[in-house]
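Re: weekly structure request thread

Next one in the queue (120 aa):
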Amino acid sequence: MNIYIGNMAFDTTEDQLRQAFEGFGEVSSVRMITDRDSGKAKGFAFVEMPGTDEAKAAVAGLKGHELNGRTLTVDEAKPRAESNNVLTGNREGGNHYRKVYQKPATHPRTARDRDGFRGE
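Done, posted below.
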């Protein structure tokens, strides 16, 4: 089960998170989210635990827990909702999504706009 951890102190390490969650069971992975340009922590992370019961116990036990002077927000991670985002590549070859907005038309459309200019 994937677990979301928010409101983390920016100096929290993967080892500190792993240690907090290992008190409830096996931890498969810890993924600290960082800014892609600066590399600095964004204050949230995801912890993967293979056992659902242990993961639920960790969520219940660590919700509101204080770590490095900050009260953690801990909950089951929810998958991202489908959206009208456009997939774009980044410099490192990974993918990122960017929301696309279209400005509404400011003038009424005519048959010429719809059918294209025929030059007649």
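The domain at 2-76 is CATH 3.30.70.330 (Alpha-Beta Plaits). The longest helix spans residues 52-62.
Next request, please.
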